[in-house]
Structures are given as structure tokens and as C-alpha cells.
Amino acid sequence: MAPGGARGPTPCWGLPVGSAALLLLLIPAAATQEPPAAGCSQNTNRTCEECLKNVSCLWCNSNKACLDYPVTKILPPGSLCKLSSARWGVCWVNFEALIITMSVVGAAILLGVAVCCCCCCCRRKRSRKLDKSDEKAVREREERRMRQEERRAEMKSRHDEIRKKYGLFKEENPYARFENN
């Protein structure tokens, strides 16, 4: 891959932005709650907004009833209110859509973390392989250099033998010949 080239699909920020918007819409509803002393049943046959001012209340859109949220269970049972008509937090999101949205967001986060972990592991493996190949290249270069030096020394000794044979061998000090005579 060329430097500066595209590295795959660009990140999609639509899902995190949508999740953040949903969270920002749920926060004001939770912040404007009534004191817990007020019962949810007193808001029955009123509006959804009045019912959901108290975070512990659940609005059932099919029969316009404001019910206490069953805190012992994660999801309200079907006998209390169908998930498609149940509202909690905000009136415009039913429980089914909320569950699906939260599941998708959670799965996307887990998938993102898994992909990041895999990418980090693959990079480490690649860098280790590069280190090993670099070490191998250095070792091979050193071996070639050693063989070349051996060949060079062998050729020098052969040339010296030929020079001695024909009297062309050069002495260390060219004036040593005159001193010995």
C-alpha cells in the first residue's frame, strides 16, 4: 500500500451521533422528574409527558395508563403492557425500538473493540516478522562479507605465491635488499 493511500472504509459516525442524540433526549426527561412520593397511577388518562416526568413511571400508549415500572424485571411483562406500546424516558420511542437501538449500539461497540484488538495483534505479529527478516538479512550480509574476505585473502595468497615464484614479490621495505648485502 502506498503511503498516504486509503486504508479501508472510513468510520461511520452516524450511529454514535444518533446514540448521543438519544441519550441527550433521555437526560432532560430524567432530570425533570417529580419527587418519588408522587405515584404513577395518578397520571393515568393524562398525557405521556406528564407521566414520564417521573423516571420510575412507564406509560402504556394502548390504554393511556401510567404505571409503576417493574424494577424487579428488566423488561415490563406483556401482561402489564405490550412492548410496542410501552414508553419510558421519552414518549416518541417505544420499548421495542429502544431495545433494538441499544442492542445495535452495544453490538457495534463490541465489534469495534474486537476489530481494534485484532488490528493491534496483527500489527505486533507483522513487526515481529519484520524484525526476524531484518535479523536474517543482517546475518546473510555478514556471512557474504566473511566469504568475500576469505576469497580475497585466498586470492592474495595465490598472487603472492606467483610473485615469489617469478621473483616479483615486493618486500615490506624496498631498501632492505640493499642493507642485507
From TrEMBL:
SMART domains: PSI
TM stretches of this protein: 12-31, 97-122
Presence of the UniProt keyword Cell inner membrane in the record: no
One GO CC term, this protein: membrane
Region (Disordered): 133-158
GO BP terms, alphabetized: negative regulation of DNA damage response, signal transduction by p53 class mediator; negative regulation of intrinsic apoptotic signaling pathway by p53 class mediator; positive regulation of protein ubiquitination; protein import into nucleus
Name of this chain's protein: PTTG1 interacting protein
Organism expressing this protein natively: Otolemur garnettii
